[in-house]
Amino acid sequence: MPVINGKVIKRLAVPLIGKEEQEMAEARLDAIEDTSSSLDSDFANLRHQKAGLMADLLTGWVSVRAA
pLDDT tens digit string along 6-16? Predict the structure, then answer.
């Protein structure tokens, strides 16, 4: 459509969801955000642990034995 004017916009049907459905969507998004934050924290802890283990190996504090 090359031109959109006020008449066209006024004829558009915009679906709206009810308050209860909005609250359910908000609760789901909050749960997803909490999970994401938790996973980010776990990932940061694992990266920190990896850095410490690599430092121990490279400085010789921990010996590596062939199995």
Answer: 888 899 999 99
> In degrees rounded to 5, what are phi and psi of residue 2?
-70, -30
The first and second tokens of residue 12, run together, are 């558009």
Contacts of 57 (CB under 8 A, 6+ apart): 64
Cα-flanking dihedrals φ and ψ of residue 16, to 5°? -120, 145
Residue 33 near residue 39, CB atoms below 8 Å: no
Q: What are phi and psi of 14, to 5 degrees?
A: -110, 115
What is the amino acid identity at position 32?
Answer: I
- Where does the chain have alpha helices with state H? 6-11, 19-59
pTM for the full predicted model: 0.62
